[in-house]
Write a structure and sequence with these properties.
220 residues; 10 strands; DNA-binding; 9 helices; homodimer; 44% helix
DNA sequence: CAATGTGAAGACCTTCACAGCC
DNA sequence: GGCTGTGAAGGTCTTCACATTG
């Protein structure tokens, strides 16, 4: 497979490091807005809440963009991270589920600001189909595969009740989606190895917090 | 500090294991609804998407609840996990930010189902104060500390724009909140060691997915 | 002198394999 | 025979410390 793109080093980046690279990118963009041209590992690492050594090690997985004695060019590093993360251009997203969570995700401005555009919204409830949600007409789930033949989105969001999640995942994969963000509190499985799924269980986040509250011995 | 509670072993549980314990609990509750009385490590592990060895190692951090040759009592194990995670009783939650995300979180039934009750909603916008959101009257942020003297919530959710997040965090801590779930795309820092913060950056989840899409060489 | 990039060391987590129990 | 619990082995990630560079 002829790899698209430029001189990026195809070294594998460890999972935890990928998540932190996305964090660094966020703060680099903030620095750029502030007009900062150069930043040191210790400064940016402090903002991101990691050690300077961690930061430099993470960046060592990419081509060298820092200059010893000087630091990192803010614009340079931002572009490198965008390239590594595949964020050079906007991405289309299919959103499935027009309930309260789906509606919130649809109106959340943060996605579009960072290049993820909700291209279509789907639901299985005929009462919701045809309604408008943040400028989007809600479509029926049966039309997902057909409509994505022209949209060609590679990202999908599952925001449906747990019973429906697996079916939605399969439709998304069949429609050509390769990255799935699943908000349903149940695991969905896909057989294809070129499809990646991430689970976000909001209640589970609370439950983890609760452990640390309990473990610290401080009860209310 | 005299530790409250019962015969739970005070061994420290590794971070990744805590998250998985919460996952196991989710599937145990589902099994219980299905009327299953006993389950083996391999069965439950398969549902949760981990190896059987991983599952047993995670449980080895707690008191032994499995019986060799038989498996785990579903009800037993659920109760043990609830106790370890501190989920034996409901928890009150303060929600700050009545924008689209805040509204969605307020109406999301999953929180209450799993014992996290939104006790009050706050916003800084006087136009929103007094409005109702899923049965809750929106309060002004200035009243947060005072109102929590009677509510005594220990959990807080930050669903405000990034500029306001740090201020909200400080108010929550001052009000006695010990666990903070932060949806603002910026790190908030708290000085107290007995307060734990978790960050959920929804866009960042997409960015991580994008890396794996790009890394697999499959471009659309 | 200031700051990066990196091998080596160390900490942490996962997987293996098997003794022991039902 | 089936299954748990766990020490030991293996792998991954983080931290350290320093050679190197501008």
């Amino acid at each position: 497979m002829p790899s698209a793109g430029s001189a990026k080093p195809a070294k594998r980046v460890p999972g935890p490091a990928v998540a932190r690279l996305a964090t660094y990118l966020k703060y680099l963009r903030a620095l750029e807005r502030e007009g900062v041209a150069t930043v040191s590992s210790s400064t940016l690492a402090a903002r991101a809440g990691v050690s300077a050594a961690q930061f430099r090690k993470d960046l060592s997985h990419l081509a060298g963009v820092g200059r010893p004695g000087v630091g990192y060019g803010v614009d340079d590093l931002r572009r490198t991270l965008e390239e590594v993360l595949g964020l050079g251009r906007p991405h289309q997203v299919l959103l499935v589920g027009a309930g309260s969570l789906g509606a919130a995700l649809c109106t959340y401005p943060g996605f579009a600001e960072r290049g993820f555009l909700i291209a279509a919204v789907f639901d299985s409830n005929r009462l919701k189909v045809g309604q408008r949600l943040a400028g989007q007409e809600v479509r029926h789930i049966e039309d997902l595969i057909r409509l994505n033949r022209s949209i060609r989105a590679r990202f999908g969001v599952i925001a449906v009740p747990p019973e429906a999640a697996q079916d939605v995942a399969e439709r998304l994969v069949a429609a050509g989606v390769r990255c799935i963000l699943n908000f349903a509190p149940v695991r969905v499985s896909v057989d294809r190895t070129d499809v990646v799924v991430r689970h976000v269980d909001l209640t589970q986040e609370f439950e983890v917090l609760s452990y640390y509250l309990t473990a610290s011995g401080a009860e209310g």
